[in-house]
Amino acid sequence: MMNSLNRRMRLMTTSAAMALLLATAPQAFAVTPADTLVEGFAFDDIITLDPGEAFELSTAEVTANTYSKLVNLDMNDTSKVVGELADSWTISDDGMTYTFKLKPGLKFASGNPITAEDVAFSFERAVKLDKSPAFLLTQFGFTGDNITEKAKAADESTFVLTVDKAYAPSFVLNVLTSTVASIVDKKVVLEHAKAVTPTAEYKYDTDFGNEYLKTGYAGSGPFKIREWRANEVVVLERNDNFFGEKPKLARVIYRHMKESSGQRLALENGDIDVARNLEPGDVDAVTKKEGIATTSAPKGTLYYFSLNQKNEKLAKPEVIEAFKYLVDYDAIGETLIKGIGTIHQTFLPSGQLGALEDKPYKLDVAKAKELLAKAGLADGFTVTMDVRNTQPVTGIAENVQQTLAQAGIKLEIIPGDGKQTLTKYRARQHDIYIGQWGSDYFDPNSNAETFTFNPDNSDEGKNKTLAWRNAWDPKDLTAQTQAALLEKDSAKRAAIYEGLQKEVLAKGPFVMLFQQIEVAGYSDKLKGFKLGPSFDTNFVYTVSKD
After folding, report:
1. Which segments within 427-542 are labelled E, that is strand?
2. Looking at CB atoms within 10 Å, which of 246, 328, 485, 510 has the fewest?
3. What tens digit of pLDDT does each residue of 337-363 get?
4. Rounded (10°) angle between helices 445-452 and 490-507
5. Is the Cα torsion angle 180, 182, 183, 185 positive or negative in sign?
6. H-helix or E-strand spanning residue 299
7. Cα-only R_g, the chain
8. In this predicted model, what pLDDT tens digit does every residue of 126-163 receive, in sequence order?
9. The pTM is what?
């Protein structure tokens, strides 16, 4: 009875805090609770919270703080991985079998023990669900038919993973740090699994808890998911069963705030503790305010726009090249991304193995007109661009709209929220898409694969990489990308990625714009607030308040 009463009181307290924090009236709550971190964050890209399906940047931050994986990045040296649920691991002499021993005494937030069977089930459901991120695992030769043999529990604390080739071990381990490799509570998931009718595309009679996990929770991370309301709020609560360093705060609330100016005002008024999407002007403004600090971190996140090769005009090689000369990179760098990004024109972000810093393109309208004339489009044409209605992409799209017009290309901007634009993009229904791509794991293959790998360019293709989304069939680049995975010599492997970048730079339907520097303004009452090198390393369990 006492436990039930305590739980009701705790829920009432949380609900009251949320009601105040989400108020929109002028007299909105002006001091955030001492045990709660409140972040203003544009997260309209969240489509699902199921780690077996989630493939959006904002979701990666939520799942990173609520789910655990076998291994994770070493925050002191991101070229290495460290055990999270795994206490140790060994690799067989032939380089194809990875054996993980779990740490003792692990528990999910539910209180259920974490066993190797849960690990095996997590891999099985991700592969069989075959959602957007599944290719990260199926690239190791896993299929719905063989996954139970390739990923299995040898005993309660021993998980064995067998891949199809002797890949570079660092590559395999880095993939296992990605969201899709999160470990779910098998018992909880199966309790919420729904029966479905098998089809030619999906031959299983269960949804493996997919519908439940879109908004539900079955993890073991430092926080547990309490609630997600699309384009409104994400609420996390401390997981008292977490095996590592316990969170210092009771909860974290992400408030969806699209506008930079609104985040800045809320931060200055004390309505939020952190502003996550500040534009250059607002960053400058908050740095002058007493009681507010700023922090930044270079991200492995690239902004780009891409040309769907299903559009006959956009598929012409001269048109692809012309678009790369119709971007005012200097103006964008000096205004729209000042302090929040650096101009970058290759698909590997700075800092990764083999990354090139080549920047051969600049605004050259005359050159672009010449190329369009060669393509038989001297009079220009009309085309659409799907744009998430947040900055800086809206500003960049408008800037590109103006420079394209100088060459006779009429660009129609189609605004939408992150979910709308991503859904259309993933269905290959766009002309031009502008957005961002963040590495799924710290290995050059993460980006190389998505920009150069497309083994099946049909609409039914299973590897839904960015090359596939844009209906680009790079043929020989796909083979080179696969070869790089088997190269043990780092220098030789880097050389392959350098060659791939040069090919995409010259011929690919991707206009790379800049690499992000994530910036946040925050109350100086916070201690331990830090941005990581990727969106799934923005951890909040270390944060406390004075």
Report:
1. 432-438, 510-523, 526-527
2. 246
3. 999 999 999 999 998 999 999 999 999
4. 30
5. negative
6. strand 292-307
7. 24
8. 999 999 999 999 999 999 999 999 999 999 999 999 99
9. 0.84
